[in-house]
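Renewal narrative, Specific Aim 1. Our central claim is that a sequence can be written position by position from structural information alone. The example that follows is taken directly from our test logs and has not been curated for this report. It begins with the structure tokens describing the chain, in the order in which they were read.
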């Protein structure tokens, strides 16, 4: 069995500004007031499970919160229990996560956000490094996870680049 998400740091950490969203948190362990979510545009329905964007709705929201000046705190004392995944489930999710991050970056590039290039490069570098390490150790399962994430990145970017902007929020 495999954990859905692993954050093992015991140090409280505050994030603000231009931070890679997956370093600040994830939707699996995320809470915010409705007012803050509305102020920052809420969830983008073009991303996430069941959407053409497949995943990264949490990374997108965290990125918009950070970019908009909100404080995102990692609080290790806040424990969230999740079901464990089988290897098959974990491998399947790596493709959707890679596609979703690619879609997030593509949407950001389409909106002329230059930070999208840094996000895309950081995500690709992270998975390429982990893939190389797994290959050196001959860990086929771990190598498969990172290969799947990398392979889905470019199609995700293409989806984001061709997707229409979100309609302006009405209040």
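The sequence written for that structure reads:
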């Amino acid at each position: 069995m495999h954990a859905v998400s692993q954050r093992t740091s015991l140090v409280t950490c505050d994030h603000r500004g231009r931070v890679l969203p997956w370093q600040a948190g994830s939707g699996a362990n995320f809470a915010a007031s409705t007012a803050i979510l509305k102020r920052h545009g809420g969830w983008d329905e073009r991303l996430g499970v069941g959407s053409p964007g497949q995943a990264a709705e949490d990374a997108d929201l965290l990125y918009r919160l950070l970019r908009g000046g909100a404080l995102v705190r990692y609080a290790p004392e806040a424990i969230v229990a999740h079901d464990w995944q089988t290897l098959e489930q974990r491998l399947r999710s790596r493709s959707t996560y890679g596609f979703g991050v690619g879609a997030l970056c593509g949407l950001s590039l389409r909106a002329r956000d230059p930070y999208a290039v840094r996000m895309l490069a950081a995500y690709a570098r992270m998975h390429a490094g982990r893939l190389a390490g797994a290959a050196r150790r001959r860990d086929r399962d771990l190598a498969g996870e990172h290969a799947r994430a990398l392979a889905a990145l470019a199609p995700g970017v293409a989806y984001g680049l061709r997707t229409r902007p979100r309609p302006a929020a009405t209040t």
